[in-house]
Amino acid sequence: MLKRTKTAVALTAGAMALGLLGAAPVAATATSGAAKPAVKTWDDWSHSQRGVVIAKPGILIRSQPTTASHEKGFIPRGEIVWIDCKVDGQDVWGNAIWYKISSHNGFIAARYVKNVDHIPYC
What we know:
This protein has 122 residues and is of the alpha+beta class. The protein has two domains: 1-46, no CATH class; 47-115, SH3 type barrels. The protein has two helices and eight strands, in the order ααββββββββ. It has helices at 2-23, 42-45, and strands spanning 49-53, 58-62, 71-76, 80-83, 85-92, 95-101, 106-109, 113-115. The strands form three sheets. Strands 4-1-8 form a three-stranded antiparallel β-sheet, with no helix packed on it. The longest helix has 22 residues, at 2-23. It is globular and about 30 Å long.
């Protein structure tokens, strides 16, 4: 019984620590010869809203809000995405909303993203 209590306390402490670390601002890293830092600072994210990818195994990033447009990248399931705004696009299983994300200068289907914050229209 004591082992279960210690395990529960350790897991709770770890979850709380991760929660606190997740809320901390992200520091920019200087890279030699790069025009922009690889990691965004807190100020860069201040105008973005969050969403979590719920699609299995993840979601494709598109150049336009349609599945026929060019693929620009991939975001795996469970990842947090920073969303600039939403637009109307191709209907994907009953949902015609697409999220504009600046990280890849592209769009992702809202059907496969659970928004954490309110997402305004562009």
